[in-house]
Design a protein that fits this description.
The structure is a homodimer. Chain A has twelve helices and nine strands. The first copy, chain A, is an alpha/beta fold. At the A-B interface, helix 1, helix 7, helix 8, helix 9 and helix 10 of A face helix 1, helix 7, helix 8, helix 9 and helix 10 of B. Chains A, B: InterPro entries: 6-PGluconate_DH-like_C_sf, NAD(P)-bd_dom_sf, PDH_C, PDH_N, Preph/Arog_dehydrog, Prephen_DH.
Chain lengths: 313, 313
Amino acid sequence: MSAVPIFRRVALIGFGLIGGSIARAVRAQGLASEIVTTARSEKTRARVTELGIVDRVLETNAEAVNDADLVILCIPVGACGPVAQEIAPFLKAGAIVSDVGSVKGAIVREMAPHLPGHVHFVPAHPVAGTEHSGPDSGFAELFINRWCILTPPEGTDPMPVETLRAFWAGMGAKVEIMTPDHHDLVLAITSHLPHLIAYTIVGTADELAQVTSSEVIKFSAGGFRDFTRIAASDPTMWRDVFLNNKEAVLEMLGTFNEDLSKLTRAIRRNDGEALFEHFTRTRAIRRGIVEIGQDSAAPDFGRPHPPLEKKAE
Amino acid sequence: MSAVPIFRRVALIGFGLIGGSIARAVRAQGLASEIVTTARSEKTRARVTELGIVDRVLETNAEAVNDADLVILCIPVGACGPVAQEIAPFLKAGAIVSDVGSVKGAIVREMAPHLPGHVHFVPAHPVAGTEHSGPDSGFAELFINRWCILTPPEGTDPMPVETLRAFWAGMGAKVEIMTPDHHDLVLAITSHLPHLIAYTIVGTADELAQVTSSEVIKFSAGGFRDFTRIAASDPTMWRDVFLNNKEAVLEMLGTFNEDLSKLTRAIRRNDGEALFEHFTRTRAIRRGIVEIGQDSAAPDFGRPHPPLEKKAE
């Protein structure tokens, strides 16, 4: 703990990939004097106690938020409204209440009405993750060089927003502020639609009559396996994302379908020129992502390749 | 060169990612006494000479195949027919002629009629690659633990098929034999459709009115960046794949579209149960791929995460 703590007590409600990564990063960077957490299942609470990453594991949300300066809901979007209602009476005056949900309009609509006037509500979304879930899946480096988007509702006191910014920056994140509605549009294309498409194609491959599942799995290195990673993400979390960002997702899906029809028509008509032009254009986007450090420049995401064993004579 | 060479002279026509990886692997494993190559552009030929990976770089395809025991066309599918016609008169009796194309039905249709009866034609497709192209992009480990599919036309002599199997196995690949038509169906779902979908969504994201390209790039870690990798693959190669495996791709696309409509309807109707059920099922496929070693078990494909720098006091 080399730094001056930003908060005295941080309370994490939920300890999956994101909650667990925050706990590890906060401890590694000394961003809080005390980290307390709770989780819905006894099994998770027992595992977190075993891991020894937090100061105290509590049984209820009410106990967890007690006297906390920062409360972060690290639970699926659909659970945030009810939990906000549940914890409201126990929140300390002046506390910052935040979340990590992938949808922000619905979070504001569902949580804000329950929260007392004496706390500061600053919704947040760290755009980071892996396909793994559960208390063991988190790691302190998850947020490094990733963006965390804050969407304070209009009229939010600027001081707690800056404090939360410093907190996320302390975990290595870059912080951006935008409106909840714009966040939901941006994430619909950069995250929600990609997940929907990946979930679809993986399902399609699983149900074919002409090609067996075992063939799909065997020959997946031709591209398919890339999609299976995000289609292995937490089902509860993603169900809630689609139910809570419906309009923006359906809008992006409409545009995607038009574009897919265009490329399909080019294939049907043997229009090689149109295909070539499109495939050349999309290459540039990858370069942009690699250039600003949002993906690895290593071929194949840096996947490991074992060495070739020399053949015996 | 610890092993007994399988071939005296191997000729590679084309020196991109695949040709270059074969050359490096053949040399590392001592699978041939001599490797010769050619490439269409003078620039590539000069670069290959500089790299010093092969024994001789020749100016023409005719010179390259001269006296070769194995000739591999490592060029886009659309170029294979004309090149087969061009090299036919110069092929040695008893030579094996092969390729590395991602489509096999069209390769057989386009190449076989040109090849003389005194050579053995054994089409091949190593299901391996990265998003990089060009003479510098190859590496000897590319084929390790990846499948190489051989699709010998009916009536092919079994001996050269076994020789080619040993050659690919020597580079670390697992080898499977199937018909060209079945190959094209399998690859349509495990490779071609995923590429088409990735190319589409990356194009969609690039053209939106409500979200800027720079926002798409910044917040791509939410899932989108995974798609940009395969949408950065070689445009010429992929144009040829779609033009030459049109029927199978359009068929898989039809099934995909039906499935996408089903999920869209579930979102529209707030059918959380249907979404949850689908998202749970797709998780299992990922596990299967990781279990048989066709992808890394490391979270996020094993993408590197830099360490968190300790904050100064």
